[in-house]
Amino acid sequence: MLAQARGDYDEAGRQYRRSLDILERLGDPAGIATSYSQLGILEKDRGGPAATAITWHVKALAIRLRLGSPQAVIDLRRLAAYRSGTGPGPFAGILAQTAGSPDLAEAITALLDQMDNTDGTTA
Asked: How many domains does the chain have?
């Protein structure tokens, strides 16, 4: 995170991927989700494609939902911001491609719609 904060995105990416590799070997799904989420934030910070950042957040969210983690809201808010920024149609297309299953894409869309209806914003 320090490398990312100082704008050294290449080093931050290396460290996040190194951490991800270790967490995968340890079989730590919560840690893996955190690494995925950080990679999504990094992609946004470096100005990368929205689809890449969305992919990382979808992967993190899928794990966090499976674990029942309250940290799922982190990725939901990030995805809500992407949906707001790209527009619902383009976002739905990206989500359909990145979710890996129609059921997951529908579940994420329903959660995002619920957030919109609950707080009146798209984070």
From this structure: 1
